[in-house]
Amino acid sequence: EVVLTQSPGTVSLSPGERATLSCRASQSIISSSLVWYQQKPGQAPRLLIYGTSTRATGVPDRFSGSGSGTDFTLTIDRLEPDDFAVYYCQQYGDSPPYNFGQGTKVEIK
Amino acid sequence: QVQLQQWGAGLLKPSETLSLTCGVYGGSFNSFYWTWVRQIPGKGLEWIGEINERGDTDSSPSLGSRVTISADTSRTHFSLRLSSVTAADTAAYYCVRGRRDRRALSCSLRGCTYAYSYYMDVWGEGTTVTVSS
Hints:
The complex is a heterodimer. Chain A has no helices and 10 strands. By secondary structure, chain A is mainly β. A 6-stranded mixed sheet of chain A has the order 2-10-9-4-5-6, with no helix packed on it. A 4-stranded antiparallel sheet of chain A has the order 1-3-8-7, with no helix packed on it. The termini of chain A are far apart. The model of chain A has no long low-confidence stretch (mean pLDDT 95). Chain B is mainly β. Chain B is built from no helices and 11 strands. Chain B has strands at residues 3-8, 11-12, 18-25, 33-39, 45-52, 57-59, 67-71, 77-82, 91-108, 111-123, 127-131. At the A-B interface, strand 4 and strand 5 of A face strand 5, strand 9 and strand 10 of B.
């Protein structure tokens, strides 16, 4: 079973700054299985990036994903007020259970 | 555009069985993985399990035999049953569409090279289930 560990737990940034979120897997996973979601309070999660680096439809290019093996990163350039949320990584499609990381909260400084 | 609408009892007593159903509207049931995810209040997301159009299921070992995921014969709804609930099962439960696509990039006599797309892209609005005596 793959365990995903996200860091930091919370990051405080100002609009316009860059956010760098980490997701580390307990064992190597295929790049096509690493997914990122965004969740705002009271809402269902929203698909953000899949296959490590492919943005979902409608996702601004300020969001980018990278990584391979066990280390993956979500980068948000030029943070906008709408970007302050919780971000989850998930390994999906490689081997079940398709676990999520515990989430990183991006909050306004 | 496909939408997922879910319903089910929101208040249960310990030892009862949680039962939720999710309707798939505006899209095909085939070629997808119909999934349940839950979120304990203030906590992260937990993958519960899934079913595909052939009726094949998979579920999280942490929930063991308490989980049953099924789909109706018309392939327009799928359901979650979680038996013997406790307060630890209090959570928001989401039904979700999963995709695991494979696309051939190139093929030769030795075989094909594929691109894989794995993600969960359509979420229901969530149902809050509270377990309390």
